[in-house]
Amino acid sequence: MSKATSLTKIALQKFKRSFWGVFSFSFLALCVFVAIFAYALAPDNSQNANQMHLSIHSKSPGFKVQMLTIPSAVKEESGLSAFFFGKQNAATEIPIANYKLKENSLQITEYTLDGTEGLQKDYNLTLFPEARQLEDIPKRYISEKKFILGTDKYGRDLLSRMLIGIRISLAIGFVAVFISLIIGITMGAIAGYFGGKVDAAIMWIINVTWSIPTLLLVIAITLALGKGFWQVFIAVGLTMWVEVARVVRGQVLSVKEMQYVTAARALGFSNFRIITKHILPNAMAPVIIISAANFAGAILIESGLSFLGIGAQPPTPSWGGIIKDHYAYIILGKPYLAVIPGLAIMSLVTAFMLIGNALRDALDVRN
Questions:
Q1: At which of 155, 185, 205 does a domain end?
Q2: What per-residue confidence (pLDDT) applies to 77?
Q3: What is the torsional sign of CA 15, 20, 26, 29?
Q4: Could you tell me which residues are beta bridge partners of residue 143?
């Protein structure tokens, strides 16, 4: 046991010496933090950051506009639900060019894209519950709003959509890798340990699954299960177990011939205990490395599915879906609408690949 602990410490020390490994781990920890507290950090905390302002669509990063906030007639949610999943009954926001106070109402001129005078509308004082007098409305309900990353083609805050969209990418990675590990480790361990006809049957299933293009198989499973959030998770997970199973099988084939496994059999331990307690703990290093690569692969597959329109469905924000909505803007003079989510995907995938490389070097006993 002390030897295992010392080997773990040695691997951890090697990992700490890898600059890119530590940097990528810190970046991913930051991404997880952002994913958990996305609605608390996002400027638009409505559910799915779906507050649309068509009059200010496709604005460049740093765009500023005066915004009138009209409280929702239905009481807004509060507590953990709104904190983690956004507000369903969020206040209505209206971009305005200017305003003036009348007797018992606020008259606003709506913002327009071309700079012409927009529609004028009157809002009664009773719509603003916290305003005791007319002069309180501009102080409490009108403010200058800045869109740090600009707005998308529907006038939604792109930064908020990006922050909430990171949840999809990380969730698809965690769920898909979890499913692939359960199936892959189980199938690979059974095939490698028992051998014979069992091994032949499982290897036939692995080879057939391996021969089908991953994206095609994911699309087929997605279409069979239906379009949606969880369907994509299951579909990606069911296609990523094959590589795990092959690696685990190879590791088990070599480890099961060790003397301590023979000793465990002689002591009368059950096959289940031998596999779980003696073989798998000594065969998991390559699986950990593959899991990091599979995490990156799952993010890319989900982005591709969302780009094709069969991933996470609108209005759920997804980085692949944001690219799908705006890839035409690359040649229309506003490439940032597609480049920003593309860079985000690239950064997240690169971080997982760098962690995989760092783990490979740290867990390599030859170094």
A1: 155
A2: 60
A3: negative
A4: 67
**Widest Cα–Cα separation across the chain:** 94
Do 122 and 260 sit in the same domain of this protein?
A: no
pLDDT tens column, 57-108: 999 999 999 999 988 777 656 667 777 888 887 788 999 989 888 878 888 9
Helix pair angle (336-362, 158-194), 10° resolution: 30
Range of the domain at 120: 51-155
Sheet (strand 142-147) strand order: 120-124, 105-110, 92-101, 63-70, 142-147
333 residue type, one letter: G
CATH of the domain at 184: 1.10.3720.10
Tally of CB atoms within 10 A around 217: 17
Query: Binning pLDDT at 50, 70 and 90, where does residue 1 land?
Result: very low
Q: Each residue of 176-185: pLDDT tens digit?
A: 899 999 999 9
| AA identity, residue 270 | S
Distances (CA, A) of 113 to 4, 50, 52, 65, 110: 65, 20, 15, 11, 10
What DSSP line would sit under 99-123, residue for residue?
EEE-SSEEEEEE--TTSS---EEEE
- Supply the pLDDT for residue 135: 84
How far apart CA 114 and CA 99 sit, in angstroms, is 18
Residue from 157, 154, 161, 86 nearest 316 by CA: 161
Q: CA 172 from chain center: how many Å?
A: 6
Burial 177-205 (b: 16+ CB within 10 A, else e): bebbbebbbbbbbbbbbeeeeebeebbee
The pair of structure tokens assigned to 213 is 């293009």
Q: Give mean pLDDT, residues 204-222.
A: 83
